[in-house]
Specification:
single chain; 400 residues; alpha/beta; six-stranded mixed beta sheet; 42% helix; binds adenosine-5'-triphosphate; binds magnesium ion
């Protein structure tokens, strides 16, 4: 069945008053961008507190639903059949045809249903109750195993009498959340692992626009490891929209740390410099916070003590959406959003190359600062060079 329109349902909690039109306008513009990638022409419009997507001509329903189901802020999508008003008998025929196509497998066995009619156009010769009752009867005539249940029906058939008549019953689940762009922007520390793409997805879901930074260490990390991160950004961008990705060469800083600091502190010191650099780019991009994929206790650098020491270098808030998640829970999300297969590709990460056998799990800030003082003579210029040589690219959504 080809649907001619899609009715967009969105959550309304917290979007009252002035915020409401910002929410709706942003949602409309995110829907338009998402549909740019779908073949066909679509008109998106706001009407009476609703958003309609109307297809102008040919399109693929599944592709359209797929694109819409990745737009944050959408709670549900109802595929709509439009029909012209050519009298009640014609309407009843379209309704029966609709039920046959939509519920063919269930119709013979029977299901419970109710018809809900709304008249936006009051000059229709029957009122809403009459239309619902009469359509109910026609359905029962053809499908005697079905039954009307007004309290908890399996199928609710919506009939809306407007200039045209809208029919819909099915709701495809949307991702929920808030439209990207309604909640400021943040800098995601994006590695090639499983966690950080999920952290980015979850942050974008709350309406935050993402920038990202990736630290690589050529020649210790390969071109393919870098490409993997770009690919992950492109998958996250399917939900979050285009991502500005800074690719920072971290090799010299890492070598200096390796050279001058105790090896059991390498990871923690390295992470402090990563955060500092990330904050530098975040300030340039006017971000309001940093986002990482850390979760308590996952590795030595993610104990509460380690994160306190890492955090200490930042003046911006650091958001850790996965902080209380188990690994399996994170994996489940990464599978759902489509990053998992890419994340598990076995390319080296700059953190793993210089890693100590027995890293400290309860670092002491004083002692870390003392170790870092050995870098004083070199770190300034190395930091500046890492900033100056960073490559910035815009990563757009990659379709499956
Ligand atoms: P992930 O699966 O996201 O790589 P991880 O379990 O490997 O996480 P760590 O390597 O300790 O954990 O990294 C913790 C967080 O630090 C990551 O989630 C990410 O936000 C950031 N991070 C780590 N390595 C890099 C990198 N090379 N570039 C950018 N950010 C990084
Ligand atoms: Mg990692």
């Amino acid at each position: 069945m080809q649907y001619q329109a899609f009715l967009i349902k969105y959550g309304e909690i917290g979007v009252k008053g002035k915020n409401r039109h910002v929410f709706e306008d942003t949602l409309v513009s995110r829907i338009r961008s998402a549909l740019d990638a779908v073949e066909g022409t679509f008109a998106v419009r706001k009407e009476n507190g609703r958003i309609y997507v109307e297809a102008e001509g040919d399109h693929d329903d599944e592709d359209t639903l797929d694109a819409l189901s990745r737009v944050f802020g959408i709670v549900g999508i109802c595929p709509v059949v439009l029909t012209r008003d050519e009298g009640f008998d014609a309407l009843a025929a379209v309704v029966l045809d609709y039920i046959k196509t939509e519920f063919a497998q269930h119709a013979d066995r029977g299901f419970t249903f109710k018809v809900v009619t709304r008249r936006a156009r009051k000059n229709y010769p029957m009122d809403s109750m009459e239309i619902s009752a009469a359509l109910g009867e026609r359905i029962l005539d053809v499908y005697p195993n079905c039954a009307v249940d007004v309290h908890a029906p399996q199928v609710t058939l919506h009939v809306e009498i407007r200039n045209q008549i809208n029919l819909y019953s099915r709701t495809v689940k949307g991702p929920g959340g808030m439209p990207v762009g309604t909640a400021g922007r943040a800098m995601l520390l994006l590695s090639g692992g499983i966690d950080s793409p999920v952290a980015g997805y979850m942050t974008a879901k709350r309406g935050v626009k993402l920038d990202a930074v990736y630290f690589h260490a050529p020649p210790y990390t390969s071109e393919r490891a870098k490409q993997k991160v770009i690919d992950l950004a492109a998958i996250v961008a399917r939900y979050a929209g285009p991502i500005r990705l800074h690719i920072v060469n971290f090799t010299q800083i890492q070598l200096a740390i390796y050279d001058k600091c105790p090896h059991d502190q390498l990871t923690i010191i390295m992470r402090r410099y990563m955060m500092k650099l990330a904050e530098h780019f975040a300030q340039e991009d006017e971000d309001l916070g940093l986002v990482t994929g850390e979760s308590i206790g996952q590795v030595a650098s993610q104990t509460m003590q380690s994160m306190a020491v890492t955090n200490e270098v930042c003046s911006m808030p650091v958001y850790r959406p996965l902080i209380a998640f188990d690994k399996q829970e994170i994996i489940d999300i990464s599978e759902k959003i489509g990053t998992y297969e890419t994340s598990i590709l076995p390319f080296e990460d700059c953190c793993t190359i210089f890693v100590a056998k027995h890293p400290v799990t309860k670092p002491n800030l004083k002692s870390i600062r003392k170790s870092e003082s050995h870098l004083e003579a070199v770190i300034g210029p190395l930091f500046e060079e890492a900033v100056a040589t960073a490559e910035t690219i815009r990563v757009s959504a990659k379709e499956e």
